[in-house]
Design brief:
Elements: H1 2-33, H2 35-40, H3 45-59, E1 63-66, E2 79-83, E3 86-94, H4 101-118, E4 123-130, H5 147-156, E5 158-162, H6 163-174, H7 180-186, E6 191-192, E7 200-204, E8 208-210, E9 215-218, E10 224-225, E11 229-234, E12 237-248, E13 251-253, E14 255-256, E15 261-265, E16 274-278
Parallel strand pairs: 3-4, 4-5, 5-6
Antiparallel strand pairs: 1-2, 2-3, 7-16, 8-9, 9-15, 10-14, 11-12, 11-16, 12-13, 12-15
Length: about 290
Amino acid sequence: MSEHLLEEKESLIKRFDTEIERKEKEIESNYKKYECLHRLLTESGDELVKSVKSFLEWLGFEKIRIMDEASEGLLEEDLQVETEDGLLFIEIKGIGGTSTDEQCSQIEKIKNRRRKERRNFDVFGLYIVNHQRYQPPLLWKNPPFKIEQIQDAENDERGLLTTWQLFNLYYSIKDGCISKEEARKALLKYGLIEFSPQTCVSLGEPVKILHNGKIILLDLSPKMKTNDELIIKRADRYIKTQILEIQVNDKNVEFVDSGPVGIKIKIHVKKSDELLLKSNDSLDIS
């Protein structure tokens, strides 16, 4: 009897050890998969530059060059990216606080030099910062730039961006809310860079939410029908869902062209979420 119990014990120990080993491999695999994203929020210096480069490669840029820090004694950018529209050069910093005016505008000097070298104005400057990196991300100030810094960037035709935005962009793309092409084009804009879904109509915030956030009441609405795509903007991330049902005056309808209206969706919505309706030009209710 005791031998049987010991055999059962040994069998349980082996099963437990096997399961622990499997779980450890899963954890290691998951860490490697998302290591680049993790480093975007924790690193500085060369490691941060390499992580941004890896992210841009995932985004679809093919010609990316890490610049030597000491080239003929001149101040150089961290990355050069060849795009269809010209040369994108990037200055990258990981800091404990927020950026000074000088850090934000440092890329301007390099931009002017690159324009002279290329004898062309197809040059785009971008400053990327991993700010307040010693604090948990949810305590970070976003965006971490002063109004004057953003205005100066717009006037000087250069971009400002954070690694926190890149981190959230990854999930917005994986969820199908933003395309990689849209993201690549956004990196060439001026001022504070923003990634957002295209061809969408804003519905604003919900007037009221019911049934744990899966029923939304809206005052006004554009044309919409069941099965249309709805995108939820929650803080710095976009989440895609689908309209399952539409109600007007407590009656289910297939489509609607004005409010007030109630809609049922697949995921939970928060009162502070912004709702975006993916445009549907094919809807004809005439």
